[in-house]
Write the structure tokens for this entry.
Amino acid sequence: MTSLDSTINFLDILDRAAASLRTKELRPTAKEVVNALLQAEKTAKQQRLVYPLEALFGQWRLCFTAPKNAHLKSGVALGKGFYVPQIAPAQIAFSPSQNLGEAGIANSLQFASLQLKLTGPARYVGKKNLLMFDFTQVEILLFNRAIYSGGFRGGKLKDADFYKKSVAKAPFFAFFRVTEDLIAARGRGGGLALWVKESIW
């Protein structure tokens, strides 16, 4: 298998994993997806791929995650992952800000008619495809109507301090694959995640 064939193979696996949320096609195994994510991460570093912040804007549904520190060892993928059950969908959204390089982030989890939503500021370090963020507000919705809204772990005070923080002191996602249909990243804790664009459903 040539290098080009290998690249096409792992990108195809990610595309098929993402597509499995909305089609009945046979989805790749969890082991295949973990390997594909790691190969995509390695390729992004080798090719020094850079993605613009604007490419992240929109709402994305979590498709697959490898919560522990999955990695390649001598070309072999180590670590386990799983497809996220869609009975309790998890979404992440990024929205533009008035200031260049800044954004808003929202993370939500839904159980039937109940939704938990966390929001806050984000800042993008473009050359590293790294988005640092913090959640400062929490909202609970029932049938899409807010039944609780308030500060989260410091609220607005944390908003003011956020832009003074260094990357080392904030949660972040390091994105290594960004297309119109999917995004993939490694979090500060070492986990991997694959999201699918909600608008393609």
Q: What stands out?
A: Residues 60 and 197 are 4 Å apart (CA to CA). The first strand starts at residue 58 and ends at 66.
